[in-house]
Amino acid sequence: MYQYRYKMHLRDIGITAHFIDPGTHILRTVMIGCLQFNESHTMINISEFLKEKFREWCIHQKICAIVSDNASNILGAVRIGGWRSISCFAHTINLVVKDSLEIIADTVIKVKNVVEFFNRSLPAQRKLKEIQEQMHLAPLKLKQDVCTRWNSTYDMLNRFLKIKEALIASIAIMRAELALTPNDWMIIEKSLPILSIFYEVSNEVSAENYVSASKYIVLCKLMYVQIQKFSNETVETIKGLVSFFKTELMHRFGDIEKNMLLREATILDPRFKKSGFRDIRNFEAAAADLKLKIGRIVLSDERPLQPAEPVEPTPGCSKVSSLWEQFDEEVARQVPENPVAAGIVEFDKYMNEPQINRHCDLLLWWKERKAIYPRLHSHMLKRLNITATSVPCERVFSKAGLTLNDRRTRLTTKKLTQLMFISCN
């Protein structure tokens, strides 16, 4: 879910629904609303608005979770509506990295100044290309960053470092006062491997039509493990950068393994299961809860358990047999426990299967084992459909920018909504 304001000053809310097709086992994304919302964006108003739209689409009983950016009014609306909330992973990462860039801000500003100079000056661009050709390098242009996307800052620094030698020569000829110091180059070289951790994570979770909720906990674990590798850095600026990331990861994701939705999604992903957790105690708690839930699931071909009625002995059988009496009592005690026991057996059997390769199609895996793990499969459909980010919803507004441009500003809100619905679905 995402909020946006067009340049026509129409305040809109976008809603996308994500579900696993039970027949094909493909993750589907459907835009159910890119809607004008002129009421005050208070928590109560947004909550009522969402309830209305969910009822309109007959999905009000099927909401597993609502994923949104970290806006307080959206989070409050979700809480008032009684839904479960997941904060957008990509937005949280974006906040962490944008704050971290303040530590190397002096160097980043110098890089921006150089990039802006080359982008404005055609002679400088020609000189850079000429020097790259003289060095037998592929001619590459500099990349400009965008203030709203830290990923673009990473791309800018990465490209800047890639053509370092050609840049040094070009700057010396065209604008010597813009030259970076050796310390600046060292900061770029050492900070890029650290930033690349978060760059890869952002790209991973922002991919549409890929199961991402089950990766949330795993990626938090991997980020923490990777950032620890830079603990022995001696350069003060880089030490500060590493320390900042460690603190922020613990602050923002320290309790992520206690999130019920995310930890169940992790366990139900055959690529991760137990291996996705940093703390084994969190896995054990999640597994115990999941076993109870699975045991309470009644399959479509089952009837809810009723108290056993006494069965009359068949003719010829003795009414009392001391030989079979103890056995019959044991069976009678086990009958009420069968549904729960079946769920536990199913869970244990699933956990004992080897994990599949990370690149395998986990939904295809579940499709092939639907009959083997019917209860787990039923619960899986309500967990692995959850996305970890609101990025798919934001893309709706990217398309809106293409649909509503300076040449089409006379479109009515109703017509725009209809065009967006057709475009996105």
From TrEMBL:
Any GO CC annotation of this UniProt entry: nucleus
Stretches assigned to the HAT C-terminal dimerisation domain: 346-422
UniProt-listed InterPro entries: HATC_C_dom, RNaseH-like_sf, ZnF_BED_domain_contain
Origin: domain of life: Eukaryota
Keyword ATP-binding: no
Record keywords, A-Z: Metal-binding, Nucleus, Zinc, Zinc-finger
Molecular function GO labels: protein dimerization activity; zinc ion binding
Record localization: Nucleus
Keyword Lipid biosynthesis set for record: no
This protein's name: HAT C-terminal dimerisation domain-containing protein
